[in-house]
Amino acid sequence: MLLFLIFLLATACAGATGFVFPTGSWYVGLTKPAWTPPNWAFPVAWTLLYLLMAFAGARVAGIGGPGATTALAFWALQIAANALWTPVVFGAHRLRLGVGVIALLFVAVLCAAVAHWRVSPLAGLALLPYLAWVGFAGALNLALVRLNPGERG
Amino acid sequence: MLLFLIFLLATACAGATGFVFPTGSWYVGLTKPAWTPPNWAFPVAWTLLYLLMAFAGARVAGIGGPGATTALAFWALQIAANALWTPVVFGAHRLRLGVGVIALLFVAVLCAAVAHWRVSPLAGLALLPYLAWVGFAGALNLALVRLNPGERG
Q1: Do B80 and A77 touch (CB under 8 A)?
Q2: pLDDT in tens, A61-117
Q3: What ipTM was assigned to the predicted interfaces of this complex?
Q4: Residue A74 · residue A111 · CB < 8 Å
Q5: Cβ within 8 Å of residue A30, ≥6 positions away
Q6: Which three-class secondary structure state does DSSP give residue A7?
Q7: Mean pLDDT for chain B?
Q8: How far lies B114's CA from each of A80, A92, B74, B120, B131, in Å?
Q9: CB of B85 less than 8 A from some CB of A
């Protein structure tokens, strides 16, 4: 339970970036693809994903064993990349750099999911919705780059 | 070595916030205490601290054992809080919120240092300069709040 709370607090730090840099007039003014989700979908999705992330990390940390520390190294990498993406895109308005960060995040989550699976298949599965969402958010970020060529990198 | 690189990449994500939000005219215009370090000291200090952090995480992950996963949970928490602080202060210019974030970061680094020490005293020691620097940066952040009462929260 303590482990779960430590990991949850780490996700809260990453999630806090969404409150510090809310989607304001800059985002409203961007040309967006037709499949852009409504604004309310983002905090709902992230809340669920952060809970799953904390569950996965706590489960692997609780089980331990030889593969657990590698899995948690990837867990640390994904939360750092996760915390970086929102400030880059919604704080600094750097869409192209955002694509680079989310590509790194995707690879980090993929590695984390595989490494978690090896310790606990349930923990690995818990990261799959996150992987899917990051893939989707990456596609959206890339579409925003293409549809808004005048935006800075 | 792979573990070291994973942790180093995580610190690079946190450190990237310093490039995305450089100290610009807003920071120059703040009233600062006499003991404020010169600007060049910050990237130098952080580079050294990030290397020590990655060393500490990799050493604990490499040794493993019962206390290692708890130590790495705190490692993940500290890097998430670390990645949040720069965007809050230098991106959103929220000095008071910055004090809250750096207080959380200080507690996270303290817990991480103790938990790392239990697995490997060398890894615990490697986090002490980081703890000292965060204490110093927190005092600086607090001084900036007091010297610039007109700044937003």
Answers
A1: no
A2: 999 988 999 999 999 999 999 999 999 999 999 999 999 999 999 999 999 999 999
A3: 0.96
A4: yes
A5: A144, A147, A148, A151
A6: helix
A7: 96
A8: 22, 36, 10, 10, 11
A9: no
Whole-Å CA distances, B62 to A40, A67, B55, B84: 42, 10, 10, 27
Output A129-135 pairs: Cβ under 8 A, ≥24 positions apart. A129/A48, A129/A49, A129/A52, A130/A49, A130/A52, A130/A53, A131/A106, A133/A45, A133/A49, A134/A102, A134/A105, A134/A106, A134/A109, A135/A106
Interface of B with A in 20-39 (CB under 8 A): 20-21
Kindly tell me the sign of the dihedral angle through the C-alpha atoms of A55, A58, A60, A62. negative
d(CA B113, CA B125): 7
Mean pLDDT, range B135-143, rounded to an integer: 97
Ramachandran sector of residue A119 (left: φ over 0; alpha: ψ -120 to 50; beta: rest):
alpha
| A35 φ, ψ (degrees, to nearest 5) | -90, 15
- CB-based contact, A50 to chain B, within 8 Å: no
Residue linked to tokens 């974030």:
B101
Distance (Å, whole) CA A107 – CA A105: 5
- Mark yes or no for CB contact A3/B70 under 8 Å: yes
Residue appearing with tokens 């958010």: A137
Verify whether the Cβ–Cβ distance B83 to A13 is below 8 Å. Answer: yes
pTM over 0.95: yes
- For the packed helices B68-86 and A41-63, what is the interaxial angle rounded to 10 degrees? 150
CA atoms of B120 and B117, how far apart (whole Å): 5
